[in-house]
Every structure is written in structure tokens, then in C-alpha cells.
Amino acid sequence: MTWFYITTMDVQDSSALQKVTHFSIVLTTKDFNPEKYAAFTRILCRIYLKYGSPVKMMESYISVLTKGICQSEENGSFLSKDFDVRKAYLAGSIKDIISQFGMETVILYTAVMLKKKIVVYHPRIEAVQEFTRTLPALVWHRQDWSILHSYVHLNDDEVEALKMCPGSYIAGFIDSEVSNRPDLYDIYVNLAESEITISQQAKEAMTMGKLHKEIGQLIVQSAEDPDKSNSQVVKDISLKTKEILTNLASFTEVLCDGEKPSLNFEALKQKRFPPATENFLYHLAAAEQMLKI
Does residue 202 surpass a pLDDT of 70? Predict the structure, then answer.
């Protein structure tokens, strides 16, 4: 997974860049941390603006790469360890999402938990990026932001690359035509209209029941508490997830030494859960790689 961070600057009065009106710096990295690389590329931009040469810029880049720090009085200093990756994971507003979708947030929660393919549409790229970056926080125990593809164009190459992704993804689009591509999603979120659509092929796995209602109520109550921060809401959801996973683990067995526990479906059936709960736990076991192959 490679992330592209792009910062563009307009040139107003630089003796070093007399014929340039704008320039962009593109930084490619393996980690998801927009705030970190926004701060770093701003410093690189200021260096390029002053010297008009990539050499000085590369000195700072290498300094960060090797020592995690670059310092200069006029261009500002940057310290890698100031940007904990968990801060990046929690930077989006989970409370805003819950405020927009209310009880329907449980559909998003279930979709991410069951590793479904989620497509998000909004005409504004900023809205798409802000929303999509926050969704993986619904399933905090995985801390997996590699499923995020926050800006996909509806062209053959990018669509093909998306389809090649192993397992699930959360993909953002600014082209409304994506709604007519059910081959790309299990869940379609029209952010502009606050609508969530479950595709035909995902309906069985996404059947909602009493457990989902419980989870939905917990999510909404937590988010409505004005004293709770976004990270506290994420923690509340995470504790509920842990409870569900602990419950699921009680129906697993280890068949051979050194193997991961796998679901004993008969033990699950004997509990006589409501059909929607049993169905959810079975699909969750699949998502958590607890099924015997």
C-alpha cells in the first residue's frame, strides 16, 4: 500500500523561482498519517520556495528519514515522533458520522466488522476523505487503515486495481455514476443525501436483529453524550466489539496444536440465538478467519 501526499503552493515573491506561479510536492509513504505529512511537506515547500533547488529539500528529507527530525529557524522544525499514528487514526470525527446517520451507523459498523466492500460518494473530495478516513475506527481492534482507498476515479485502471484488492475496502468517489456499479460494492453510502444502500448480494450477511439494535443504541447514546470526545466514543464501541468477540471465542475450538481457534458451528447453534444474531456471529467468524477451510 502506497500513500500519496500532495501539497501545492503558489509562488508570490520568490527570487529563486521567478518564472514559477505554482508548484506541488508529492511525498509517497507506506503509512497513513495525513497530518504528519501535511506538516512535513509544508516545510519542504518553504525550503523549495526559498532556494528554488531540490537539493536543500532533499537534505531535510534525508534528515527526517534517518534521524526523524529536521530543523531550521526560518522554515520551521519537524519531529516525526510528534505524530503518533493513533492520533491519525482518531483524527476524523466519529461523532459527526453518528450525528448524520443515527441508528443507521450500525449498518456501517456491521459492514466494516464483516469486511464488506464499502463505496462512499460525495461530490466534494474533502467530504469523501474526511468520512472514509474515520470508518475504520468503528473496528478499532484491527487498526487497519490499509483498507482505505479515499479517492478513486471511475476509470478502467483504477477500478481494476480496486477489484484486485484482497478482501474488503472502503473506497471514496466523487462521480455519482458509481451508484450504477453494484459490482464494486456491498454497501453504497450516498454521503450527500445521507443514504445507505445494502446491495442484493450482501443482504443475507447484513440482516439486522436484536443485537444490532443494541449496538446501534449504544453507539448513538455514546455519541450524544456532550462530555465524550471522539476517542471516548471509539473506545465505547471498541468495548462492545470486544464483548462480542469474547462471546464468539467461547464457540471456538483448537483442533490441532499451533492452529488458530476455529468456530464450532454446532456449539453456536445450540445456544439458540435469534437467527439474525447467529447469522452475524457466523459471518463475523468468517471475517476474523475463525472458519475451518
Answer: yes
